[in-house]
Amino acid sequence: MKRTFPPEPKVALDCRNCLGESIVWDDREGVLHWINIHNREIWRWNPFSGDAPVVTPVPVRVGALGLRETRGLVLALEKGFALWRDGELTDLAGVDADQPTTRLNDGRVDPAGRFVCGGMDEGAPQKPLARLYSLDARKGVSTLLDGISCTNSLCWSPDSRTLYFTDMPTRRIDAFDYDLVSGALANRRVFASLKDDPGLADGSVVDAEGCLWNAQWQGNKLVRYRPDGNVEREVLLPVSNPTCMAFGGPDLDILFVTTAWFTLTPEQRAAEPFAGSLFAFRPGVRGRKEARYAG
């Protein structure tokens, strides 16, 4: 029997991750990949097969992942980049050796096959010590931006000319001109302000119509922004902390949403029994294929 998904978010997998993040749809294999950061796990699941997810432990925390042009995944570890294939890690490059309180946090493969990933400071109080990096399979690692407290929302417009990014404590999503040939950033400006919203901008994804969907941490909602930055719709969730999204399914018309119970009090967890689970719904628009790392 073919599985169906509703027009409003419902629990697709009762996984209750501490911090589910960085979900992507692998169109070649028909599976979702995501991470449970603080539990040091990589998850893989076919939402149509009826099979249980495959959960693989990893020796360090993974902040973000991306598909590869060849088999496997590219990973952003706490302090560097690695390849992942058949359960084996191959280290590529280290970063932030001079910053003991930072780790890599959010990343996505750009349309040219680079893995762009930024960090966050885990110190208290949080400080702007992290950086945004680009991992090029031929040229190695380069720094795109510094002075960051917590990177999120990395994604590109359909024409690849705009990179979206947030430093979460700023309560805004920024846009940059993006040179796809060189990977250089220019012309930083505010795309959307969250100063009047209860939540913070977490993971984002751009759909086939060029609208940006943002998961709002502590805001219990997803927000779809038009290309001009105006709000097109809000979608409420029964959990406080949505974290990331991916369009999946054969037609890329199902939006899968990771969530977290991390930072919730015992009372909040009791009130949100499915916090950390994977949600899914059909939003009435389609997504785009994830780019693949060229290495």
Brief summary of the model shown:
The chain has 1 helix and 25 strands.
Molecular structure report:
With 295 residues, the protein is an all-beta fold. The protein has one domain: TolB, C-terminal domain (Neuraminidase, 6 Propeller). The chain has one helix and 25 strands. It has one helix spanning 266-271, and strands spanning 10-13, 20-26, 31-36, 41-45, 54-57, 62-68, 73-77, 80-85, 88-94, 102-109, 115-121, 130-136, 140-148, 151-156, 162-167, 172-178, 185-193, 200-206, 212-217, 221-225, 231-236, 242-248, 254-259, 278-281, 292-293. Strands 9-8-7-6-25 form a five-stranded mixed sheet, with no helix packed on it. A four-stranded antiparallel sheet has the order 1-24-23-22, with no helix packed on it. A four-stranded antiparallel sheet has the order 2-3-4-5, with no helix packed on it. A hairpin with a 2-residue loop joins strand 7 and strand 8 (80-85). The protein is globular. The model has no long low-confidence stretch (mean pLDDT 97).
